[in-house]
Design a protein that fits this description.
Radius of gyration: 17 Å
Number of domains: 1
Distance between the termini: 18 Å
Main location: cytoplasm
CATH superfamily: Aldolase class I
Subcellular location: Cytoplasm
Family: Belongs to the triosephosphate isomerase family.
Order of helices and strands: EHEHEHEHHEHHHEHHEHEH
CATH architecture: Alpha-Beta Barrel
Catalytic activity: D-glyceraldehyde 3-phosphate = dihydroxyacetone phosphate
Largest sheet: 8 strands, parallel, barrel
Strand content: 15-25%
Bound molecules: 1,3-dihydroxyacetonephosphate
CATH class: Alpha Beta
EC number: 5.3.1.1
Oligomer: single chain
Number of strands: 8
Length: 248
């Protein structure tokens, strides 16, 4: 049985003080939730204070990106060794990073391996653009991204990795994928993983992301293949993220 996993990706929002306030507000709203794994992913500069605020609560912490090297002359970058002291998860290969910051399947794979080397759990993002969807390439694109990201991992690592299927056309647009479409693509992704890594595919959690809101989360969570959500905009408000985490 896969435990549902719901993470908030704050993207480039919330200063250190705003991030601490949001985390504080969230604690009491979700303290009675124990059947869902809850994670927030603030900007890197917020991580230290948010970690302090969340200590001893049921809310986990993740980063939004990292470099694959442990240390060195990489101005502006943050390493897995640094993140290890702050959080348990790291989002890798978000479509915004692929689109604006030249992230490739190859760098995603290096980062995923580096995450496991330092006991961080990667939340690996995959998903097709509108153009790719309209030309019938959704499965081909997802298969390529998933196989590249997981290349060289052990079955045990794959079982612990998390994938977020986020169709690019559904991110921040209010145009979410239907729950049955998302379920179908996530089922396809799980089959791709099963063909290469066997039963670990049934242990791996695969999330949906893209315009998830309090009023549509339950539709996704009813689907058998969807194990949770990666939430952008609606995670920036404590009440709305708590409502998503407490979906009925
Ligand atoms: O990109 C996302 C999460 O990583 C989704 O963002 P929105 O929920 O704002 O569409």
């Amino acid at each position: 049985m896969r435990k549902p996993f719901i993470a908030g990706n704050w993207k480039m929002n919330k200063t250190v003080s705003e991030g601490a306030e949001l985390a504080k507000a969230l604690i009491s709203l979700v303290e009675d939730v124990n059947d869902v794994e809850i994670v927030v992913c603030p900007p890197a500069v917020d991580l230290y204070l948010v970690k302090m605020v969340l200590e001893g609560t049921n809310i986990g912490l993740g980063a939004q990106n990292m470099h694959w090297e442990d240390s060195g002359a990489f101005t502006g970058e943050i390493s897995p060794v640094m993140l290890k002291e702050l959080c348990q998860y790291v989002i890798i290969g978000h479509s915004e990073r692929r689109q604006y910051f030249a992230e490739t399947d190859e760098t995603v794979n290096k980062k995923v391996k580096a995450a496991f080397a330092h006991e961080l759990i990667p939340i690996i993002c995959v998903g097709e653009s509108l153009e790719e969807r309209e030309s019938g390439q959704t499965e081909k694109v997802c298969e390529r991204q998933v196989l590249a990201a997981l290349d060289g991992l052990t079955e045990e690592q794959v079982a612990r990795a998390i994938i977020a299927y986020e169709p690019i056309w559904a991110i921040g647009t209010g145009r979410s994928a239907t729950s049955s479409d998302a379920n179908e693509t996530i089922g396809f992704i799980r089959n791709v993983v099963r063909n290469k890594f066997g039963d670990s595919a049934d242990k791996m959690r695969i999330l949906y992301g893209g315009s998830v809101k309090p009023n549509n989360i339950s539709e996704y969570m009813k689907e058998p293949e969807i194990d949770g959500a990666l939430v952008g905009g609606a995670s920036l408000d404590a009440e709305s993220f708590a409502a998503i985490v407490k979906f009925e």
